[in-house]
Structures are given as C-alpha cells and as structure tokens.
Specification:
The chain is about 50% helix and about 20% strand. The chain is an alpha+beta fold. The chain has a six-stranded antiparallel sheet. A five-stranded mixed sheet has the order 11-12-13-15-14. Strands 2-1-4-3 form a four-stranded antiparallel sheet, covered by helices on one side. α11 runs antiparallel to α12. The radius of gyration is 36 Å and the shape is elongated.
C-alpha cells in the first residue's frame, strides 16, 4: 500500500515536471492532489491583489471563489500554500474526502506535491515569459516590416495597437497622441478591438492631468490600473455620448509612454476584460519595451512622410515657376494681341474677341490660383486663401469631388479675425447644403475682395437640381443671414446662370489701419 502511494506520488511529480505551460501545471496539481488523497473536490487559487484571486482552477466542482475567505475551511479540509521562488503563489485546498478527515499520509503527499508544484510553476512561468518575449519581438519586427512597405503614420499607429492587443491577449489597445491645438490634451488616434463598437472611442480626448494615460505621458513611466472601465465611465461619461455597452467590464490596463530620446510622442494603452488574467510586472516591462520600438517606428514614419512631402513641395515649386514664367506670360501676350486685334475688326467680331479676352482673364486668374495652391504648404496657416484651399480638400469626402476655388483681390490682407471666421463658416455651411440637398456633380467657390479691401463677396455655385421652393428653410441659411447682417452684408440664393443654385454672401469689411496697409 505504501509502495503504491509512493509510486503514485512519484508519477504525479514526474507529470508536473513534464508540463511546460502554466495552465497545464495548475490543472495537473489539482487533479493529482485529488487522486493521491481521494478528495472529491480540489481548488488551486492563484493569489492576486487585496486577498483576491487572479485565477482559480477546480477539479470535481464549480463553486465561485473570489477571496481567501471563500475557500473551503474547517474539519474535512486540507489547505496548503504553494511557494514559487520564495513567495506565496497560491493555495491548494482539498475537501470532500470519503470517510471524513485527511490523514497524516495525505498531508505528507500533498506537501511533497506542492513543493514540486512550486518548482514546476516557476519553470512554466519562465517558459511562458520566454515565449512572451519572443512574441513581442516578432510584433516589433512586424511593425518595422510594415514601415518598410511605405505605410503612412495612421496605418502605422493602427498596426502598433493591433499587434499590442493580439500579443498581450488583451481585449483592446489604443494609441493616444497630444493634440496639435492643445498639448495638455491627448487624443486617441486609433483603437484596436475585435468589437466594432469600440471604434466610437476614436477621437476621444483625455486631459494630461488626472488620467492614467496623461500620467504616463507626463511622467514617462508606465501606469497600471484596475477596474479601468469604471474609471473611463467616471472620466468620460459626459464627453463620449455613445459609450460601448460593456466598457465597464474592462479591468486590468497598462498605459506606457512612447519615448524617442528625450521626447514623448504619445501613449500606448492596452486593457483586458475582467475575465482575463491581469497584467503582471513582466508583461508591463514587455509592453514598455514594445512601446519604445513603436515610438521609433512612429518617428521613422514621420521622417519618411516629411521626406516625401518635401519632394512633393520641391516638385510643386518647379511646376509653379514653369506655370508663372511660361504659361501666364504666353496667355497674357495672347490677350494683349486679341485686345489690339479687336480695334481693327468690325463691331460684331470685336464683341466676340472681347469675350475671348474675358475668358483669357479668367483662365489667367485660375492659373494663378493653381500656382498659389501649389506653393502653399499643407500645414501653413498664413491666410484665408490657405484655409479655403484646405476646406476644398476636406469637403471632397462629403461632396464626392473637390470643389473649384477661385480668388480675386487682397484676401489675406483684408479678411482677418472675426470676418475670416464668418467667411469660412459660411463657405463650410454652403458646401454642406450642396452635399445634402443639391445632388450636384460640380461646385465652384469664388471669393472676391474689391481693390479697396472694403467689400467681400463669396459665391457658391453648383450644377445640381436648383433651389428648392422653401429655400429659406434649408439648414444653415439662417446662420448665414445672421453672419451677413453682422457685417452689413446680404445673402441671396437663387438659380444659377446655367442651372443649379447660386448662393451669394456679401460683407462690408472694417477699414484697415494705415500701418496694416
């Protein structure tokens, strides 16, 4: 009998030594303990924070255990700690032995088993850590490989978040970057999650002060929190109207800064649902190392984008110079020639020639606008011309095409301050109305300031279905009328010369100071 028990104990110990993965070790410990002692129910509880459990493995039952106080206790129960590397890792509890209490031989067998279990758990933990490091290293290589394919910065950020989520076995990951307008605010640029509803969080903002992501960004150190979902609800309930329904189930989260040299580019946030094992100290270190590699990737992507942008600007400058030096001069010469020819022809022909001259003038103005747009950097904020060109590019998504923009007069010098804001808001609302109501295939925007810099006229013309009978009720027109009245101007909406709708908005600009002139 004794020899049989010793052989069974030896087999159990050897079985533990053969297991490489931690879940298998924990399961085998409980099963072997129940087999050796004849217990009907076994529990292995991995200790967590505040007397709670990070994981519970059971055999012969399915009770719910949250804290140490919930574990079986009293007569008929055998409970022993399991030490790993000199620290208490968990507790093994046995109960339900037929015939009553556990004997001295049972206690000795279980004590030997727990000693072997501590060694096996330590080996399995180190094996898992080695695998984790390999997975994080592979993730870093994948981010680098994505960069070599020429991905832009936005795609790079999404790759970083998705790989971090997958490797960490997390429920979600996100990258937050400082706002360009306000560095005291972080903006979640990308969110990676298998649940589509979490894409609502893209664009959400959090202050640097008083938030986990903000503390990580400001301090340059990782921040680990529990019950992250409830934390988010308290912080963001008012700012995010359509919060994902299960956000309160997010539990363990780690926010690590993305640092290159002395500069913190942003924060990588990885979080898990409550039913998953929280982040360990080793995992936090691995996420931090990955964030460092990711920051280098982001910086490289930015540098590559700057290099491509510089090449584009150089090419634009060359094209702009050629247009100005060759095309404009030739068109101007043709116009002068036609103007001289008009004086030598009959009145009917002279009128036709004058029409051609006017078309040439308009063409020259359009070419000059094109030259300006070629020479204007995308990030510049020098004047209203730049704003209008960017607005035309931004509106192509809702319109399905890019509107044609033309300027005339001293726009940048005359349209400043509140007048500039009202003009941009007017053009934006006019384009929005075209997108929603007109069904147009082309839109032109013309902004003109007279030579004295006193009168501003903006026209938005489309080739759509024409003005509706209840035009005055269209969304935004009331605001446009108020803005026009604010500047002693007018608003008119009617059919265009060639069909469609023409909106004309005027304003009387304030006189500029002599120094400003």
């Amino acid at each position: 009998m004794i020899e049989t028990s010793a052989r069974a104990l030896l087999d159990a110990v050897m079985g533990l030594a053969a297991e490489l993965e931690l879940p298998g070790v924990l399961r085998r410990v409980v099963e072997s303990a129940c087999t050796l002692t004849g217990a009907g129910h076994g529990v292995f509880a991995v200790l967590g924070a505040e007397q709670g459990f990070d994981e519970v493995v059971q055999h012969g039952g399915a009770a719910e255990y949250r804290t140490i106080a919930d574990l079986p206790d009293g007569p008929g129960t055998l409970s022993l700690p399991v030490d790993v590397d000199g620290k208490v890792y968990g507790r093994l509890c046995l109960s339900g032995k037929p015939g009553g209490a556990f004997g001295e031989r049972d206690q000795e067998s279980v004590a030997t088993l727990t000693t072997a279990a501590g060694i096996a758990i330590g080996n399995a933990t180190r094996y898992e850590q080695a695998l984790q490091r390999e997975r994080w290293r592979a993730a870093s290589q994948q981010v680098t490989a994505a960069l070599l394919t020429g991905e832009d910065s936005g795609t790079t950020l999404h790759t970083i978040a998705e790989r971090a989520r997958a490797v960490a076995n997390a429920s979600g990951a996100a990258v937050a970057m400082p706002s360009e307008q306000d560095p005291s605010i972080l903006v979640f640029e990308v969110v990676a999650s298998p649940e589509p509803q979490y894409q609502r969080l893209v664009g959400a903002t959090v202050p640097v002060e008083g938030t986990a992501s903000g503390v990580a960004f400001a301090s340059g150190q990782p921040v680990v929190v529990r019950e992250y979902g409830r934390y988010v609800l308290r912080q963001q309930e008012e700012t995010i109207r359509q919060m994902p329904v299960n956000v309160d189930a997010l539990d363990s989260a780690v926010a690590v800064p993305m640092i290159v040299g002395a500069q913190t580019l942003g924060v990588l946030l990885v979080t898990k649902f409550r039913d998953k094992v929280p982040f360990s100290d080793t995992e936090v270190e691995l996420v931090q190392d990955f964030a460092g590699h990711a920051a280098l990737a982001v910086e490289f992507a930015r540098a590559e984008a700057d290099r491509r942008r510089l090449a584009v600007f150089e090419d634009r400058d060359r094209i702009a110079r050629d247009l100005h030096d060759l095309v404009i001069q030739r068109l101007f010469a043709v116009g002068l020639g036609l103007e001289s020819l008009r004086k030598l022809t009959q009145p009917e022909v002279a009128e036709q020639v004058a029409g051609f001259v006017r078309e040439l003038d308009r063409t020259i103005r359009d070419v000059r606008n094109s030259i300006f747009s070629l020479q204007e950097p995308a990030e510049a904020h020098a004047g209203v011309r730049s704003d209008l060109l960017r607005m035309a590019q931004d509106s192509s998504g809702m319109l399905g095409f890019e509107p044609r923009i033309s300027f005339d007069g001293p726009l940048d010098a005359a349209i400043t301050g509140p007048a500039r804001s009202d003009l941009l808001a007017t053009i934006r609302e006019a384009l929005s109305n075209v997108a929603r109501h007109a069904g147009a295939h082309a839109v032109s925007v013309e902004v003109v300031v007279d030579s004295a810099g006193q009168r501003l006229t903006a026209r938005v013309t489309d080739d759509g279905r024409g003005p509706a009978p209840n035009t005055e009720r269209l969304s935004g027109l009331t605001n446009l009328q108020r803005r026009a009245a604010r500047w002693n101007g007018t608003l008119s909406v009617g059919p265009g010369e060639n069909g469609g709708t023409e909106l004309e908005w005027t304003a009387v600009l304030p006189r500029r100071q002599e120094g400003a002139r």
